[in-house]
Amino acid sequence: MLKINRVVLIVLSLFCLSACQDKYTFSYLMTHPTFTTKEAMRCDAMLNKSPSAATQCQRVDEAAGLIIAVLKEQQMDPEAFGQKIMSAEAELVEIKLKLKVAKGNLETLQKNNTDPLALKAMRTESAALKSMCRDQNDKVKTMLAIVGMGRP
User: Fold this and answer.
1) How far apart are CA 11 and CA 70, in angstroms?
2) Would you state the pLDDT for residue 114?
3) Which of 47, 74, 88, 61 is nearest to 148 (CA)?
4) What is the pLDDT of residues 87-130, one digit of tens each?
5) What pLDDT is recorded for position 24?
6) How many helices (DSSP H) and strands (DSSP E) are in the chain?
């Protein structure tokens, strides 16, 4: 279980670090594993890579490595992996509910001309929850995409 959490933490960390304007984002690569494996083969076949292609291929290779690790995890114990997906989806629902409440609280504070510090704190909380929601959604999409790889 610790290994599973470590892989998920690495995946989420890389999602956060990969907010670039390149050809394919890390998030896109993780949620499209079939494309990523094909892109990794294409990168391996390239002889002379431009600096931007080398950067993109490095991102592809990192994503492909993580996809393989998660795929192996899924193949080793499909039932446990399914439970992990369900837990991640439940966590996503909780985050979405917290975000909805935070947005409502922010609107209330704005209507009541509340202290600017309280408004700033609520905006910060809302932004953090929005980011958590996006990351958790990517995590769920990645796991579902991995499961989908094994289907005809």
Assistant:
1) 10
2) 78
3) 74
4) 999 999 999 999 999 999 999 988 987 788 988 999 999 999 99
5) 86
6) 6, 0
Give whole-number Cα distances, 5 to 48, 73, 151, in Å: 37, 11, 25
**Residue 151: pLDDT over 80:** no
Q: Which two tokens stand for residue 137?
A: 């959604």
**Residues 43, 46, 48, 52, Cα dihedral to 10°:** -30
pLDDT of residue 104: 94
CB 67, CB 144: distance < 8 Å: no
Tens digit of each residue's pLDDT (9 = 90 or more) over 53-95: 889 999 999 999 999 999 999 999 999 999 999 999 999 999 9
Beta-carbon contacts of residue 66 (< 8 Å; ≥ 6 apart)? 7, 10, 11, 14, 30
Chain position carrying tokens 């899924």:
74
Amino acid found at 25? T
Give the three-class secondary structure for 94.
Answer: helix
Residue 31 buriedness (CB in 10 A; 0-12 / 13-18 / 19+): buried
